[in-house]
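I hope you will forgive my troubling you with a question about protein structure. I should value your view on which stretches of the chain appear to form regular backbone elements. Here, with my thanks, is the record as I have it:
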Amino acid sequence: MPFRMSGYIPFGTPIVVGLLLPNQTLASTVFWQWLNQSHNACVNYANRNATKPSPTSKFIQGYLGAVISAVSIAVGLNVLVQRANKFTPATRLLIQRFVPFPAVASANICNVVLMRHTELEEGIDVLDNNGNIVGSSRIAAKHALLETALTRVVLPMPILVLPPIIMSILEKTSLLRSRPRMILPVQSLVCLAAFGLALPLAISLFPQMSEIETSRLEPEIATATASKTVVYNKGL
């Protein structure tokens, strides 16, 4: 259940709040990025195109690659910001709040590709207009992973960009200045609202059952059906 799309928001929001906490240490950055990409890896695996069996060893390889790339990107960006002496402390803190987005977006692409790389090797089933399997296509698998990767870039945009902007404004209000303990609950609500906006927006970019012209696929698939187009399950 935690890895269904319907569970993405309730289980993912606490992680987003952790990613956006100010004054992150190296240890906390590594922890939240690891937790985020671990959750993403399981979501990507649970919502993949499962027409071909995937051994546990492939899952472990993909998971380790996805998490290591995510943590490396996030830590590298944080170190660069901390070493940028030309920024004032206030500017450096503001920039650090936006570091999670490029780190998460680029790591999400690695995560999708690594967690579903078996599809690229073996292909995915494509179906004709009557729902009959025409064949297995690696080209369709590339399209499926590209579309899914694009949704994973769009998804963190509102989640990791809007809350820092909104919170930088709200933290200057007299209400939060006089009640600093309210900052975390308010930030949690802002993240929850941003997540609720972003998830349906990102998933709706491409239909789950995507269509592609047979002329763009492998010759053996194009000759195996009279249909001009076939469909494939890109996953979510």
Observations:
- The CA atoms of residues 210 and 231 lie 5 Å apart.
- The beta strands are 124-127, 133-137, 209-213, 229-233.
